Amino acid sequence: MAELSAKLVKELRDQTGAGMMDCKKALKEVDGDLQKATEWLRQKGISSAEKKVGRTAAEGSVGSYIHTGARVGVLVEVNCETDFVARGEIFQELVRNVAMQIAACPNVEFVSTDNIPSEVAERESAIEAGRDDLGNKPEAMKAKIVEGRVAKRLKELALLEQPYIKDSSLTVSELVKQVAGTLGENIQVRRFTRYTLGEGIVVEKSDFAAEVAAMTV
Question: GO CC terms for this protein (predicted)?
Fold first, then answer.
């Protein structure tokens, strides 16, 4: 289909309250049909979820997941607006699924790209700018390529940008918005910690044969 106009995306956003990227995706899914895009967002629970984002989410649950073999463990805090929703089966299932997602994504370090410190983005920019394949390219082109690569890299570090492990047609962000739309509350993934058995421990390797030989000298 032809490139979506900013005016059409804005119109859908004004009608539904959904985010810009969600509106673009909806319009692409239905070949630019505004009415169908609105229905698509409603089916996904996105439009109603976006309207609740500004509301305070101070309740919720800390969930955990231990992967088979007990070598990877996760703690995650997911917030909602009321204790009633927090204790419900739908919300608790979301918490479990998000915890499993974190366990399955060892490279993820932050909840969203908004949480990534500027120094991390600057470091990635420096790395990309120094790559050999950019050496002979014009500066303007080089800057654009670096920007695209850094944006891609930052998404790889963000939990909400990952394809959902149980349905790769959804991102984790879209999953959370769907549940928020279903439950009628603002739901936010606040923070998480991932533990890998033995991570950070330096194991000293010894040459047993050499030690035995030394003892016999």
Answer: cytoplasm
